[in-house]
Design a protein that fits this description.
heterodimer; A: about 110 residues; seven-stranded mixed beta sheet; four-stranded antiparallel beta sheet; B: mainly beta; six-stranded mixed beta sheet
């Protein structure tokens, strides 16, 4: 089925290690987003890409970098992981051509930094 | 910056009881969206409200957008165990970026069968 695919689903990192979270959508959506979800904090925007070739900071960008590789793919990189980055990470996409304008979320990456 | 407050944080009901969650924004919104997240799952889009005073229904769910476009509510009639999950509102700031939704912290609904 069409949707947003995130890899990996689970990951354990040691403090200081780096990793890239991958996200791909096959719905021809223009905008893509990275959120983190922590207990009691709701969903907080890390970075977003309004369209291919552009990226912008969200609410909590420190410690992260992103790459909009093409229209389909939007990756999130942690250069030097810290325990404070333990969280569930969701990628989402959105099309402005759709009448509903809702976000489609991936199934998430559960990251633990020890 | 824009803040979206959602209450209550938690709600436990008996199956068959009604449930309401409220969302309030510090700024006027151009639209508001509602999402449901099942335990262990990801948020799933439910609906978008755009017009002042708008009311939309989806079976037992009723969504309202306030006249001033700064508040919204989701009401579930006769809850079922399948309604369990966290309900989030998310607002798009009027006059702001057209790309960034601000999410409330959500209301966790549990239903006792």
């Amino acid at each position: 089925n069409a949707g947003v695919t995130q890899t990996p689903k689970f990951q354990v990192l040691k403090t200081g290690q780096s990793m890239t979270l991958q996200c791909a959508q096959d719905m021809n959506h223009n905008s893509m987003y990275w959120y983190r979800q922590d207990p009691g904090m709701g969903l907080r925007l890390i970075y977003y890409s309004a369209s291919e070739g552009t990226t912008d900071k969200g609410e909590v960008p420190n410690g992260y970098n992103v790459s909009r590789l093409n229209k389909r793919e939007f990756s999130l990189r942690l250069e030097s992981a810290a325990p404070s980055q333990t969280s569930v990470y969701f990628c989402a996409s959105r099309s402005y051509a759709s009448s509903s304008y809702g976000y489609t979320f991936g199934s998430g990456t559960r990251l633990t930094v020890v | 910056g824009q803040q979206v407050m959602q209450i209550p944080q938690y709600q436990h009901v008996q199956e068959g009881e009604d449930f309401t969650t409220y969302c309030n924004s510090s700024t006027t919104l151009s639209n508001i969206q509602w999402y449901k997240q099942r335990p262990g799952g990801h948020p799933v889009f439910l609906i978008q409200l755009v017009k002042s005073g708008e009311v939309k229904k989806q079976k037992r769910l009723t969504f309202q957008f306030g006249e001033a476009k700064k508040n919204s509510s989701l009401h579930i009639t006769a809850t079922q165990t399948t309604d369990v999950g966290t309900y989030f509102c998310a607002g798009l700031n009027s006059g702001g970026s057209n790309y960034k939704l601000t999410f409330g912290k959500g209301t966790l609904l549990t239903v006792n069968p």
